[in-house]
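Ticket #4471: structure export looks truncated?
Reporter: QA, pipeline team
Priority: medium

Steps to reproduce: submit the single chain below to the structure queue and open the exported record.
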Amino acid sequence: MTSEFAPSAAIATSSTSTAMSTDSVNRIGRLLEPAEWAAAGIPLLRSPRGVVSGLHSRHRPTFSTAVVAVLDHEERVVASASFKRRTTPADGWDFRNALLAHLRRVIPHDLRRRTPVRTAVLLYCREGEGRWTEEDGAWMWGLRDACTLHGLRCGAYITLTPDGWQVLGEDRGGRRPNSRSGPAAATGTEADSLSAPLPSGAAAALRRVATR
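Actual output as written to the record:
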C-alpha cells in the first residue's frame, strides 16, 4: 500500500515567503539610487521647462501616466508616447519592457550606430512630492535599460506632481506645469518641439499612441 501526504501548511508558507522575499530582492536590484543616476553622466537638458511644457501640452498626463519622448541633437521632440502604469509593484524590469514596447511603436532603433545620436527622456506624473522614491528609481533603471536596447542615449527623468515638475538628480524644476495644470498653448521653444518633423512611418504611429 502506498500512502501520499500533502505538504504541511508550514512548508507551503515557508516556500511562499521565500518566493516573495526573492521577488522583493530582485525588484530592489532593479532600481537606481540618486547617486547612481548622477554618476551615470545623464546629459543635461538645455531647456527643461520647454521640454516639460511641450510634452504636457501634447499628452496632458494624469496620475500614473508615463510620457517617453525622443529628442534630436537640437532638443526637438521627434517622437513621443504616453501610457498608464499598471497597478503592480514598482519593478524596473516591467517599466523597461513597457518603455521599450512604446519606443518601438513610434521610432526605429539606432542600434546600427556606433554612438547614440538621439536621447530619450521620461516624464512621469504621480502623486506625492517631487523627491526621489523607490518607484522613481525603478523608472530610472527601466529608462536606462530601454535606451540601451533601442540604441538611444539615456536622458533626463522628470517627475510631475501637484507641486510642479522636477528633473531628478538636478536642482532644476518649476511650479508649472504640474499634475493639476490644464492644457496651455505652446509658444516659442515649445511650439518648435511640437511641430518637429517625424521620421518616415512614425507619424501615424505617434498619432495613434498620443490619442490614448
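Status: closed, not a bug. The export was complete when the record was re-opened. Leaving a note from the reviewer for reference: Confidence is low (pLDDT under 50) at residues 12-16, 185-212.
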